[in-house]
Amino acid sequence: xxxAQVEVLSKADGECVAVERPNGPSPLLVICEHASRxxxxxxxxxxLSEEALRSHIAWDPGALAVARGISEALDATLVYQRFxxxxxxxxxxxxxxxxxPEKSEVYDIPGNARLGDEERHxxxxxxxxxxxxxxxxxxxxxxxxxxxxxxxxxxxxxxIYHGKTRAVEIxxxxxEDSRLADGMLEAAEAGPHRYKIERNEPxxxxxxxxxxxxxxxxxxxxxxxxxxxxxxLISDETGQGVMAGxxxxxxxxxxxx
Length: 257
Hints:
The chain is 33% helix and 17% strand. The chain is built from six helices and eleven strands. It has helices at residues 50-54, 63-74, 117-144, 179-190, 211-217, 237-256, and strands at 17-20, 28-32, 77-81, 103-104, 107-108, 150-157, 160-161, 164-165, 170-173, 197-199, 224-230. The strands form three sheets. A seven-stranded mixed beta sheet has the order 1-3-2-6-11-9-10, sandwiched between helices. A two-stranded antiparallel ribbon has the order 4-5. A two-stranded antiparallel sheet has the order 7-8. A hairpin with a 2-residue loop joins strand 7 and strand 8. Helix 2 crosses helix 6 (237-256) and helix 4 crosses helix 6 (237-256). The chain is globular, with a radius of gyration of 18 Å.
């Protein structure tokens, strides 16, 4: 456990948030909260094995590559978190147990056990607040230059969860505002049926996964969507490129509509 008085990130760790194409002209603002499995140096391994640190509990494998593919294709701004969600899950508010989980699926996380209020506050201050402040700043800049903003967050999920196989391949998720999701689902239905695509699967609003959408999309009246891709489909560059191209098409059709 990192002492409360010690900074969460060192100078060697660098900033927690990265922004690519900050002035991209597309209305789409692409966000990837679970882009990295990297841990800040002072946390070591959090008491986890290498297997656990490479697994889906630490990050969303392939999600950043897909998000980058969409960003490149549409010349859209991309924002992503540079550190593992095991330290802080930026798609969860500070009061959520899932923000700094003690257990994820079958893995206990020793370095997150019985965290005190000071340490939880330190992680929130170091990772969650700067990440979402960076998104707010981008939105303010876009408003100032009269640029429309549409929010899309990109995630991946494991094919087998708690021993159960998931048949869904792409999830199109939304909270109370379904405009962008509706458009993507309609585009998917109208085109070649290449993937098994479901609305609000394998997660939905009841699972608390729409935090970023609510914070930056719903609250501002922006169209928004959360994209979940089964990670076995994006385990290599070829799969990532194919998926990025497919999702770019769905997003573009929905934006145009």
